[in-house]
């Protein structure tokens, strides 16, 4: 598996310039515990994580709110005895209770410290490679949140800092307090917002890496779903996601049909083509497709072997230009791009 470096290109010290070296494709673990319907049990999820390590995928992504809390426990169990093989990323900031109740967005310094200690315990580790603020807290100045995060680095509990779904102004303010290694935001053929809202230009100016979550459009770009009825009936938030509602679904499906046609011509799957497109957008971008099944993981890995020339990229731009997808990314967009 090829490696990519997140952050460090414009850093001021030798240690920061090293950045964070990760596999060119990571593994999003969220769906193993919540949001995408019932899985095949922890056994298959753990086997998927361990298979990822065998394939050279060392970049694992989780968060305390997934489950809530249970996803970190699952990841910690899966990597027990193999911590040195893993670049481990987790997040804080979307506060939930154990029963799943959402408390709100929390970036207060005392919460940052408490959340980190709890994550370390669940993950069975004494350090986190990349610690993200999951969403920006509008009630807490970003300088205070990042200040507390930087204290975690001084304490040896965290090695690199990240933000998720932050806007350009917030990114700059955060980076002025402590170097930000990576920004994680949604990015795929059907979500090209970072190209047009100055996020990419900002992170590249500052030397910050970009981690693309949902690079397969929450599964839509795989072509697996031909109707909203194909989604799991229980526990799948996509049934309430604007892009998966009937009218938007059919419009978006017509775009995916064209992706599948192109993929067939190239002898690859639609998912592999979509991931190859993200990889082709820059060496500073690392997609983290999520799956809870080994067979999808093994197929996704082959995206690194898909070569896209300028004609291929132009064709994909024509099929899926920015703004082509119908519907908002979330039912409530108020917590993103702050």
Rg, nearest Å? 19 Å
Helix content: 25-40%
Q: Strands of the biggest beta sheet: in what spatial order?
A: 3-4-5-8-9-10-11-12
Largest sheet: 8 strands, parallel
Give the tally of β-strands: 12
How confident is the prediction overall: mean pLDDT? 95
Distance between the termini: 34 Å
Fill in the keyword field for this structure:
two-stranded antiparallel ribbon, alpha/beta, 12 helices, globular, 338 residues
Describe the structure.
The model has no long low-confidence stretch (mean pLDDT 95). The radius of gyration is 19 Å and the shape is globular. Helix 2 crosses helix 3 and helix 9 (246-266) packs across helix 10. 37% of the residues lie in helices and 15% in strands. It has an 8-stranded parallel β-sheet with strand order 3-4-5-8-9-10-11-12. Strands 1-2 form a two-stranded antiparallel sheet. The chain has a two-stranded antiparallel sheet with strand order 6-7. It has 338 residues and is of the alpha/beta class.
Topology:
Blueprint: E1 3-6, H1 14-17, E2 20-23, E3 27-28, H2 42-54, E4 59-61, H3 70-78, E5 87-92, E6 94-96, E7 102-105, H4 109-123, E8 128-133, H5 142-154, E9 158-164, H6 168-177, E10 182-186, H7 193-196, H8 199-206, E11 209-213, H9 246-266, H10 270-280, E12 285-287, H11 294-301, H12 310-319
Parallel strand pairs: 3-4, 4-5, 5-8, 8-9, 9-10, 10-11, 11-12
Antiparallel strand pairs: 1-2, 6-7
């Amino acid at each position: 598996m090829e490696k990519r470096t997140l952050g460090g290109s414009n850093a001021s010290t030798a240690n920061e310039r090293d950045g964070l070296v990760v596999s060119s494709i990571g593994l999003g673990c969220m769906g193993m515990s919540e949001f995408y319907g019932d899985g095949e049990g922890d056994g298959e999820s753990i086997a998927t994580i361990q298979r990822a390590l065998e394939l050279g995928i060392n970049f694992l992504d989780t968060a305390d709110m997934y489950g809530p809390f249970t996803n970190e426990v699952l990841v910690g169990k899966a990597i027990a005895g193999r911590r040195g093989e893993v670049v481990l990323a987790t997040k804080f900031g979307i506060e939930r209770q154990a029963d799943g109740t959402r408390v709100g967005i929390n970036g207060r310094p005392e919460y940052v410290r408490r959340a980190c200690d709890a994550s370390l315990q669940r993950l069975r580790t004494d350090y986190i490679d990349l610690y993200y603020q999951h969403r920006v807290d509008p009630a807490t100045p970003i300088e205070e949140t990042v200040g507390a995060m930087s204290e975690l680095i001084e304490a040896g509990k965290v090695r690199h800092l990240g933000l998720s779904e932050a806007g350009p102004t917030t990114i700059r303010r955060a980076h002025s307090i402590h170097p930000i290694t990576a920004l994680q935001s949604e990015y795929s053929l059907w979500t090209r917002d970072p190209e047009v809202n100055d996020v990419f230009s900002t992170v590249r100016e500052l030397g910050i890496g970009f981690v693309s979550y949902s690079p397969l459009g929450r599964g839509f770009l795989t072509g697996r779903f031909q109707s909203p009825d194909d989604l799991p009936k229980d526990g799948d938030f996509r049934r309430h996601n604007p892009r998966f509602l009937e009218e938007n679904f059919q419009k978006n499906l017509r775009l995916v049909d064209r992706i599948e046609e192109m993929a067939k011509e190239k002898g690859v799957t639609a998912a592999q083509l979509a991931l190859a497109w993200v990889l082709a957008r820059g060496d500073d971008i690392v997609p983290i497709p999520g799956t809870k099944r080994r067979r999808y993981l093994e197929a996704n890995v082959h995206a690194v072997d898909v070569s896209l020339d300028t004609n291929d990229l132009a064709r994909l731009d024509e099929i899926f230009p920015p703004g082509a997808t119908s519907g908002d990314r979330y039912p409530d967009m108020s917590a993103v791009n702050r």
